[in-house]
Amino acid sequence: MGEFNIAQCLMNQGNHSTDEMQELMHKAEEDGATLAHLITDDVEIDPRPVRTAVGRAAGGAWDEELELYSDYMELFLDSMNKFMHTEAVVSPVLAEDYVEGEGRASSQGIGGDISLVTGLVARDPVFLELARRYSEEDLPEIDELAVDSLEEFLNVINGIFTVDLARRKINAELGLPRSGEDVQPHGSRQLCLRIYTAFGSFRVVLAVDEFF
User: How many CA atoms lie within 13 A of 61 on its CB side?
Assistant: First the structure.
């Protein structure tokens, strides 16, 4: 189970627009108590709000994969907080929208007893900011180091995920990360989720095979 995500509770409640949520998460980076102050009696305290958001976005589809996808997204958002020092939320609406220029992607497959490919797709400014935050380097542009940083981020998350799977007696092995440009995801059993942060949004893609 992931750490309790106040921002996700607020997102699920639907009382704030996505722009307002991004502004609140930006303020939370400066003052960690910002979000806690918004928890009032009319806000539902969901112990697993990320799972709730993923279920809503799926809309009743992906029955066989939904539990695995939800487990992964709880870890993903925890890792955004831990490794990139930012709040992040999953939109409870399926990310079928295309944002102009949003096509730079990194992904990694997990094989063994399961078949899972995870990855992210982002516009260049967001991709670069993710790489900066993970690497803790002042990267001026998207270069080999920036791409390697996002691939390493996925590799770390997926490594943690495979350890968790092993505890459940599920054998899982990591493939090599890969990256590409001008990507439009098209994986099998694909769930595409919009992630909002203080510095922009991007998509996380979950599928049972490579999506680009």
Answer: 11
- Using a pLDDT cut of 70, give the percent of the chain over it: 98
Q: Which residues contact 100 (CB under 8 A, 6 or more apart)?
A: none
The structure tokens listed for 91 are 């939109």
Three-state SS for 100-114 is CCCCEEEEEEEEECC
Residue-wise pLDDT tens digits, 76-126: 999 999 999 999 999 999 887 777 778 899 999 999 999 999 999 999 999
Across-strand partners of 9?
none
The pTM of the full predicted model, rounded to 2 decimals, is 0.93
Q: Which residues have CB under 8 Å from 150's CB, separation 6+?
A: 106, 120, 127, 130, 131, 134, 179
Q: Which of 159, 109, 117, 151 is nearest to 134 (CA)?
A: 151
pLDDT for residue 2 is more than 50:
no
Closest C-alpha to 118, from 21, 205, 10? 205
